[in-house]
Amino acid sequence: MSAVATAAGYEVVIGLEVHAQLSTRTKMFCGCSTTFGAPPNTQTCPVCQGMPGTLPVINRRAIEFGTRTALAFDCTVNASCRFARKHYYYPDMPKNFQISQYEEPLAEHGGLEIDVAGGGVRRIGIQRLHLEEDVGKLVHEGTLETAPSSLVDYNRAGVPLMETVSQPELSSPEEAAAYLRAFRAVLVYLGVCDGNMEEGSLRCDANISLRRRGATELGTKVEIKNLNSFRNVQRALEFEVIRQAAALDAGERIVQETRLWDADRGYTRSMRSKEFAHDYRYFPEPDLVPLELDLAFVERARAALPELPRAGRRRFVEQYALRGAEAATLTGSRALAEYYEATVGAGAGPRPAANWILSELLRVVPGDDEQAVRDSPVSPAHLAGLIRLIDDGTISGKIAKSVFDKMAASREDAATIVGREGLTQVADSGALALVIDQVLAADPKLLADWKSGKTAAENAIVGQVMKATQGKANPALVRDLLKEKLSKT
Amino acid sequence: MTTDLTRLTMHALAAAYRAGEATPSQATEAYLARIAALDTRVGGYLTVTAEAARAAARAADARLAARRPLGPLDGVPLALKDVFCTRGVTTTCGSRILEGFVPPYDATVAERLAAAGAVMLGKTNMDEFAMGSSTEHSAFKPTRNPWDLSRVPGGSSGGSAAAVAGDLAAAALGTDTGGSIRQPAAFCGTVGLKPTYGRVSRYGLIAFASSLDHPGPITKDVRDTALLLGAIAGHDPRDATSVPEPVPDYVAALDGSVAGLRLGVPREYFTEGLDPEIARAVREALEVLRGLGATTTEISLPTTDYGLAVYYIIAPAEASSNLARYDGVKYGLRVPGRDLIDMSSATRAAGFGAEVKRRIMLGTYVLSAGYYDAYYGRAQKVRTLVKRDFEQAFAAVDLIVAPTTPGVAFKHGEKEDPLAMYLNDVFTVPVDLAGIPAISVRGGFSATGLPIGLQLIAPAFEEARLLRAAHAYEQATPWLERRPELS
Ligand SMILES: [Zn+2]
Description:
The structure holds two protein chains of two kinds. Chain A contains 17 helices and 16 strands. By secondary structure, chain A is α+β, with helices and mostly antiparallel strands. Chain A folds into three domains: about 300 residues, no CATH class; about 110 residues, no CATH class; about 60 residues, Arc Repressor Mutant, subunit A, CATH 1.10.10. A nine-stranded mixed beta sheet of chain A has the order 2-6-7-10-1-11-12-13-14. Chain A has a three-stranded antiparallel beta sheet with strand order 5-4-15, with no helix packed on it. Chain A has a two-stranded antiparallel sheet with strand order 3-16. In chain A, strand 12, helix 4 and strand 13 form a beta-alpha-beta unit. In chain A, helix 14 crosses helix 16. Chain A starts with a helix and ends with a helix. Chain B starts with 9 loop residues before the first helix and ends in an 11-residue tail after the last helix. In chain B, helix 2 runs antiparallel to helix 3 and helix 10 packs across helix 13. Chain B has an eleven-stranded mixed beta sheet with strand order 1-3-2-4-6-5-10-11-9-7-8, with helices on both faces. Chain B has two domains: about 350 residues, Amidase signature (AS) enzymes, CATH 3.90.1300; about 80 residues, no CATH class. Chains A and B meet through loops of A and helix 10 and helix 11 of B. Bound molecules: zinc ion (ZN). The site of zinc ion has 8 residues of chain A, from loops.
C-alpha cells in the first residue's frame, strides 16, 4: 500500500465520527414521516419547519434505537441525558440551531471490535453516542455563494440522527474502513439504520493526524468531511496520510483545519475557515426536560438485543465449519445470516448452502441490503430444494446453475423448472451409449487417441457427450460406460 | 337589554346569555362598535378579526338558543396577545420581522378557547417579542392606558390589559416572562394571573425566553380569571414542559374562606425604590386580609436583589437562540441582499427594533465560549437559589403578599433608559424565575387616580389557593367600582 510505504516513518492516528439516520417511522421531534425521496417539503410540519411558537417533542422510538445501539457497542447508557441547542446560521437548518446533545449525551464509553491486518482483533473505543436532528437540503447550481438562488427542502430536517464518536485509536486507513464496515453491520443488525451510504443514511467524518514513530505527543489533527462510502473513507485517508507525511518530511507544519474529500478528483481540499471557526453557543434545550432513562427500560433493551455480527460469525465457524471469511460475509447483514440458517434449516448441508449463497445468491442479491435479502427471488426453502436435487442426482451441478438463474427470474421452485424443462440428468445407460457412439463415429482421431489410452481424450469425449446432451448427462456414468466399452474392444 | 354589554365580566355576560337577556352576537357587535370608536385612541389591537368574530358569535347564538352551550365561555368575546399563533390570522409578535406572517396552525390556548366557544375579537398589541414593560416598543404603535391616555399600559401584554380595562374585550390572554401579565394588569387595574410553569401549554406561543414564558389570563375580576384559567390549563402533549397535573375546578375554589391562611410579607420588597403610596396600599390590603381571618408575618427572600441580574442573563440568552430563526429565508420580512449572509443581516437589521437587538447581543455574548460559565452557568445556579428562597418561605406561609410594581403607570417616553425600564420588573421577575404562580389584583388607587396592583404569590400548582385569597380580597374591597372614563 503506497500510503503505508510513504508514511513508513510515521504512526497514523485516526478517529471516526459517524452519523447514522435512525430508521424510525417519524422524525426526532415531530410526527412527520422520514421516508426518503418524497417530493420536496411534503414531509414537513410547522415543527420541523422551525415556525415561530412550535415546540419539539422527543420521539421515544429514537431513544429506544439509540439505547439499543449504545448497548450493542457496550456503552454506558446515562441515567439522565439532555438535549442542547447548537447554533450556527445556515438555511438548511430551519431554526438556525440544531437540537443535539452536548455535555450530557445518551451514552458513553463503549467499543467496537474490528479485524486488523494479520488476522488479529482490536477493540476501538467509542467515546460517546448521542442523538440529534438532521438538517434539510439546499438545491442550487454551483456553490451557495455564487448561485443566483437556492431552494430548500426540509423533508430531511428533523430526521433522527445518531452521532457516534470513536476514540482516535484507528491506526490505518484500512482499519478505519474496517471500523466503518463493522459499525454499519451492527446498526443494520439492530434494525436501527438501513446503512445506505448512497442515500446518506450513514455518513462519516474522520480526524487524522500523523506523528513520528515513537513520539508521544499527538500530531496536528485534520478533519475530513464527505466520506460517503467505505472506499472513500479509505481513499481519502490514504490521500491524507501521503499528503501529511510529505508535508512533515518537507519540514512543513500541518494546519489544523477541515478538509473536504473530492471523490471525483481523488484529493482532499481545505474548506473555508468559517466552517470550523464556529462558536456553537451550546446551551441546554429549554423546551425539553432532561430525559431520565430508568434501569428497567435499559434492561429491556439489553434483553431484546439480537445476536450481533461478530458473535454470529464465531458461531457460524464453529457450528457450520465455515471459514472465517465465509462466516464474515454470511453475517454481513442480519437478513443474510438468517437466510443462511433458514437454508440449512430447510435441509441443505451447511457447506453447499454456504457455497451456493456466496457464489450464486450474492450475484443476484446485494447481501448487505437487508430488505433485498428478505425479498430475495430465491427463498431459502427454494435454494435448499435446489441443493436437494443435486444431492440426489436428479440434476447435475452445471444444470443447477442455470436452474438457479431461472428460479431468480421466475421465483419458481427448482423441481417445477426441472420438471417442465426436462432438465433431469440423463442416467439411462442405453441412451448415453448411443450418444457416445455418435461422438466417436464423428471423430476417428479422437477414437484412436482414446483407444491408445490417452486421458485427455477421455475427458474430451465426456465433454462432447455433455455438450450433446446439453449438460444433462451424468458425467460419472459416461466415464463408466467408456471404461466398459474399452474393455470390450 | 339596558346595560352596556361591554361593561360586563365574562361570568355576568354568560349569565345574561343563559337568561336570554343578551346574545353572543349582540355582545360581539357591542365590542366591535366600541373598538371601532375607541381603539384608535387606546391602540390595544393590532388586528381586529370582525368577520370571524361575527361568525363565531352566530354559531354561539345557535348553541345558546338550543340551550346547548359549550360551557361558561361560549360566546364570550376575548382578545389574544399577538404573541399567540392563530391559524389564518396575521401574527406579528409586535415585530416588523413577522409583519404579514400568517401561521398555518393555532396555539394550544387559542384552540382550547375556540373549543370552549369563545369569540376571538382580535390580536392585541405588545412590546416587540414581549421585550418591554410599556408597550411602547411595539414595532407598529404604542398602546395607551385607558385610565390616562398619556400614560403607558405597562407591558409587554399592554394591549391585552388596556383592552380589558377599556372594555374593548371581556377578557384577554397575555404572557408573562418577567412580569408581562402582572405589571400591565397592575397599571391598567385589571386582574392578571401568571400560572405555574407547565400549567398552561406554550405550544404556539412565539418564544421569547422558553424557560420563563408563561401564558395566562387578564380579566376584569378574579372569577373571570378562574374561568379562563380553567379553560386553558392542562397537559398538552405538544409541549414537553407542560405538566400532566390534573386541573382543579378553579371557580369552585373561589368559595372557600381565607380564615387561618398564613400570609408572608417579604421585607426585601419594601425598599426605598417602592412608591410610598403603593407600600401603604399593600399594608392596607394586609389589614383587609387579617380582617378576613388570615394571619401575616414578615418573611425574607434574600435573593430578591439578584432576580433582575439573573433574569437579564437567562432571558436574553434564550431569546438570542429563539430569535435566530428570523433570517428572511422562510417567513416574515425579507430584505434582499448580495448573498445569503447579506440578506439575513439586512433582514434582521431592518426587522428587529433596538430593544430586541440589545437583548440578542446580550444573549449571544453570555452564551459565547469562554463566557458561558461566568454568565449563563452562574445565572442558572442563582436561579436555583431564587427558587429555594421561595420554597423555604412557603414552608412557613401559605401565600406571599407583595406589591406588583414599584410605581404606578408612568408617562409615555418617561423611561427612555433601558435600565430604568428593567427596574419595573423587580417584584415580578423572581416569581418567573421560580416558575410559581402569582396574581395581580386591583389594590387601590394612587392620589392621581391610577390603579395600584397587589400581588399574591403561591407555591407551584396552588393557583386555586391564590384565586381563593384574591377573590376574598376583591369581595372585601370597593376597588372594582371605579372604571376609566374613555368615552
Ligand atoms: Zn414535522
